Amino acid sequence: MIIRDLREEDAGALARLTTEFTGVETTPEEMRERLRRSRGVEHPILAELQGEAAGFASLRLTPYLGEEAPYAEVSEMFVSGRFRRQGVGRALMAELERRARAAGATSLNVLTAPDNEQALALYRAMGFEVFSVALQKWFSQERPYREDTP
């Protein structure tokens, strides 16, 4: 398995993975633009297994008022269904943690759906614990994700 920085030329693979993740069709052009806009705040990585894009994750690092250290959050983490249970998610998370520590963060935060048992089991096994409750307010009836997304 190879874990590496995600590059602009990976936009097609990332668009496919994102579409599988969210259920919302995402084009390579849209993904290139998202990568461009998030540069410097988001630090995306790609996992390759058997020569294919198997999953991706992104570390969000931002300064904040709470302390001198940067705020570190896993803003994206997804492994394609056919590559699950092969250590890809664990490898992606370990790399994000390594990068957060190297940037001086004192903790790493991750959000996931409360019924995403696979993700919760992985995060707990890696030492994450419940710290807070996340709430979200939508500004329209339209949702960017399917409700039945795994």
Verbal overview:
The chain is α+β, with helices and mostly antiparallel strands and 150 residues long. It has one domain: 3-Layer(aba) Sandwich (Aminopeptidase). Helices cover 31% and strands 27% of the residues. It contains 4 helices and 5 strands, in the order βααβββαβα. The protein has helices at 11-22, 28-38, 88-102, 117-125, and strands at residues 2-5, 42-49, 52-64, 67-79, 109-110. A 5-stranded mixed β-sheet has the order 1-2-3-4-5, sandwiched between helices. The longest helix has 15 residues, at 88-102. 24% of the residues are buried.
List keywords for this structure.
single chain, five-stranded mixed sheet, 4 helices, 5 strands, Aminopeptidase, alpha+beta, 150 residues
CATH fold naming: Aminopeptidase
Largest sheet: 5 strands, mixed
CATH 2nd-level architecture: 3-Layer(aba) Sandwich
In terms of DSSP E residues, the strand content is: 25-35%
Beta strands, count? 5
Query: Number of helical runs?
Result: 4
Q: Supply Rg.
A: 15 Å
Number of domains: 1
The structure class reads: alpha+beta
Low-confidence stretches: none
Helix coverage percent of residues? 25-40%
CATH-level-4 superfamily name? Gcn5-related N-acetyltransferase (GNAT)
Which CATH class is shown? Alpha Beta
Distance between the amino and carboxyl termini: 24 Å
| Molecular shape | globular
H/E series: EHHEEEHEH
With strands numbered from the N-terminus, the spatial order across the biggest sheet is 1-2-3-4-5
Mean pLDDT: 89
